[in-house]
Specification:
Blueprint: H1 8-14, H2 19-32, E1 35-40, H3 49-63, H4 72-85, E2 90-92, E3 102-104, E4 107-114, E5 123-131, H5 143-154, E6 160-171, E7 174-183, H6 186-190, E8 196-199, E9 210-215, E10 221-228, E11 234-241, E12 246-254
Parallel strand pairs: 4-6
Antiparallel strand pairs: 1-12, 2-3, 3-4, 5-11, 6-7, 7-12, 8-9, 9-10, 10-11
Helix pairs in contact: 2-3, 3-4
């Protein structure tokens, strides 16, 4: 596609900016010059061809000024913006909402991000799925049932769960990024209702941490809920098998350096 002619109105606006602001704009533009490879699940009802391209533009622009992966808040804002650009109704939930993060065409979504240095290609880890501040929790194994119920009740607040996963690779001082948008089926997580509960009595944490492990018919782990004790009292979801999830789209690029 040949370069577009720069509108006169845009040039006039740029002429009003200070040198510092122009330098910032130059960084964004440099990011947009990066080559990007995109692909989507052909029958995806989340990522259309236009969404695929527009979201790729958001990633390129962002990495023109940042060497860090896209944050959760910026992910939410980007999804809202791109969904509106493709003609869908999208509205982010108020900041701090304990349930869904965004509503798209009347469907409530929970949005997550994963960009840990130890990120794995075949399993998904959500380090903070929700807070577990309420309910009894000390060192009694039976109390894990109440914590699991909090998780199952939390799932009632939305219909779908999307995770944006970011992989960073540096080769000979050049940075490469791989992003993937993965849907974690809510039906999969609801299987926690029949998972095996185990409290880690040997741990020095207070309250004691615990696990809820969900396995398939062959005894292989599908995923684990980890009730993280200590001061933060949060729920992690570990070792979600990606082959049980849906990869809606992928983006690969190396920002100009």
């Amino acid at each position: 596609m040949p370069p577009a002619e720069v509108p006169k109105e845009l040039l006039e606006l740029l002429a009003k900016l200070s040198k510092v602001k122009l330098a910032h704009i130059a960084s964004v533009v440099t990011g947009l010059l990066g080559e990007i490879t995109e692909k989507r699940k052909k029958d995806s009802d989340v990522v259309s061809e236009v969404f695929l391209e527009e979201f790729g533009v958001q990633l390129l622009a962002y990495h023109g000024t940042s060497a860090r992966p896209l944050t959760k808040e910026l992910f939410e804002r980007a999804v809202e913006k791109v969904m509106k650009l493709v003609g869908r109704k999208a509205e982010r939930a108020p900041s701090g909402n304990p349930g869904h993060d965004i509503t798209i065409d009347g469907v409530k979504y929970s949005l997550k991000t994963e960009a840990d240095a130890a990120i794995k290609s075949d399993t998904i880890w959500i380090s903070k799925f929700m807070e577990l501040g309420k309910g009894q929790w000390s060192d009694q194994p039976k109390q894990l049932k109440g914590l699991r119920k909090q998780f199952l009740d939390h799932l009632k607040n939305y219909e779908r769960i999307l995770s944006l996963r970011a992989f960073k690779k540096v080769v000979k001082s050049k940075t490469y990024w791989h992003y993937e948008l993965v849907e974690i089926p809510k039906a999969l997580l609801l299987e926690a209702a029949g998972g095996k509960l185990k409290m880690m009595q040997q741990s020095s944490q207070d309250p004691k941490p615990g696990y809820c492990t969900v396995e398939d018919s062959k005894g292989q782990v599908k995923f684990q809920l980890y009730f993280d004790g200590g001061g933060e009292r949060k729920l992690q979801i570990k070792d979600i098998r990606k082959n049980l999830c849906v990869v809606h789209a992928e983006w690969d690029f190396a920002p100009p350096q």
